[in-house]
Amino acid sequence: MHTRLRSLAIPVALISLLTINSPAQATLPFATAKVGFQNTDKSYSTEATVEAVRQSTVSAQVSGRITAVNFDVGDPVKAGQVIVRIDPSELSQAVAGSRAQVAQADAMLANARANYERQQQLFQQKFISQAALDKATAEYRAAQASAAAAKAGAGQTATVRSYTTLTAPFSGVVMARHVEVGEMAAPGKPLMTGFDPTDLRVVANIPQYKLAEVQKAGKVSVEIPSMNKWIEAKGITVLPSADSATHTVKVRIDLPENLAGVIPGIFARAYFSTGETRKLAIPYSAVLRRSEITGVYVIDSKGRISLRQIRIGEPGAKGDVEVLAGLSPGEVIALEPVKAGIYAKQSAKK
Asked: Which pTM does this prediction carry?
């Protein structure tokens, strides 16, 4: 039995088919409907969680004191914007040292090249031996290698220095800020976490015995109970592995882009439509919960209102719910239980 109260939008088609207009009930200050069998989706539902498709934590790659944190939690950030700066003083000195080593290696290379060219001329004139030429050749090649190594070291140092300026890898919103100005950064230390709010999905764990049924689902709907919101999914992806402890398979459900108000981590419920069935169903918004009692307000032919306990099944993907016990076809119920309860109390006092 589903134990959570949710206020769902009443399907227009359902109301148009069920709303009655008898004289006694037409005067009631709330909408009513006649209970009847409906063609509803046969679905399998499971709990799920919303997550961002793109979410990342930017971490430090070098050590140093943090000099600037340009964004805070909730701030929008564009790709490439500087989010954190680390003091580059120490690395700037290393870069200067590397450049000096490059200049020294270039000077030594120039000297070795000139010596090598002179030794070649002397060897052609037979003034020096082959051994002397070989020595000059080796020194020239060693100078070339030293110059290349110095340039590579300078490039590496410059690259490391660039790690003191951290930029956003993609456009999104800051989810968490892990550091403050003045703290020390160290390689691997998290600095800031962000996500892209335009690209979200829902993740659910499906029991392995339900996997084949879920894969054949013709339609998938997602409910966000806290927002009273229903969303039609764009598609699903079944991950090709199962959890050995729970024997469940993770399923990712793609949501439409730019969903207002939906954020990672909130609770959701996924409904996999596996066919169609005929059930005695009512709008879920007509159901009233009072402590352990689940009921609806029933209106008799004379317009008298009473609260009746019912037993319901799982809500459907269209905002309706199956009635397992407590109601019969043809009976009339209130679609707005709060207004019906207030009206019933006022009528009892008269």
From this structure: 0.62
- d(C-alpha 206, C-alpha 214), whole Å: 8
Q: Quote the CA–CA distance of 274 and 42 in Å, as a whole number.
A: 6
Conformation bin of residue 222: beta by default, left when phi > 0, alpha when psi is -120 to 50? beta
Q: Which residues contact 240 (CB under 8 A, 6 or more apart)?
A: none
What are the structure tokens assigned to 162, written together?
């660039």
User: How many CA atoms are closer than 13 Å to the CA of 163, on its beta-carbon side?
Assistant: 22
Neighbours of 320 (CB within 10 A): 22
- Residues 284-307 have pLDDT tens digits of 787 888 777 888 888 887 778 888
CB 44 within 8 A of CB 153: no
Cα 256 from Cα 49, distance rounded (Å): 15
Angle at 153 between CA 65 and CA 157, to 5 degrees: 20
Q: Dump pLDDT digits (tens) for 195-228.
A: 999 999 999 999 988 888 888 777 888 888 888 7
What is the model's pLDDT at position 188? 92
Residue 12 is predicted with a pLDDT of 33
For 276, the token pair is 């169609």
Q: Sign of torsion, CA 115 117 122 123?
A: positive
Cα–Cα distance measured from residue 216 to residue 218, given in angstroms and rounded to the nearest whole number:
6
pLDDT at 92 over 70: yes
Residue 139 and residue 147: Cα distance in Å, rounded?
12
The pLDDT value recorded for residue 318 is: 64
Question: How many whole angstroms separate alpha carbon 75 and alpha carbon 177?
Answer: 11
